[in-house]
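How a chain folds remains the central question behind the approach discussed here. This step matters because it turns folding into a mapping between discrete strings. The sequence in question and its structure tokens are set out directly beneath this paragraph.
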Amino acid sequence: MDRVAMSRNVWARPRWSGAYVAVALLSGAASVSAQNAPAGSDVPAAAAVRQALQEPLAVSPGGAFLRAVLVPGWGHVAIGSHTRGGFYFALEAATAYAFLRTRARLSEARERADLRESVLRARLTTEGVTEPEDIEAALDGDETLSGFRDLVESREGQNEDLVAWGIFLLFLSGADAYVSAHLGRFPEPIQVQVTPVGSDRAEVGLRVRMPRPF
């Protein structure tokens, strides 16, 4: 009976010793994690951070893009970026004002050119000039009409440039609002922590909060 009991004890020891080893490893891992964790951090705080990161955004990136395209600065204001929203609003408002002013000047230049051309045609008709080639040559030779035509061409070029610039700003504002909405998932920037570990040593660590999957 003693031999049988001894053999049972011999075969049972590895099982108990394996359990002891597993418990010891888990305890050691827990102690190492507790030592490496930053001061003041605990499981409830980590859970609160995780829950905050999983909360949906107030405005989706697509919604911010559409708002920025529809109304200058609206997309940025919706995500809380008021300074950038004011910047884009002022820039696009200035572009719209310059476009409207250029359109008014273009209309004025066209009216002057048309009026000068009408006066010249009436004068040529009075003088008996009726051939189309002679009329066009006389119109091209008039310095005042040529100046008005050059002014109209210049105003048209400015108008086209402002239209292209306005479209570029529109999509730039929308893209910026879209990216800013995505970056809004990061609640805090990268933090640098320096922890002294001895009289002449220190550990430097970086803390980054990762966003939830899109």
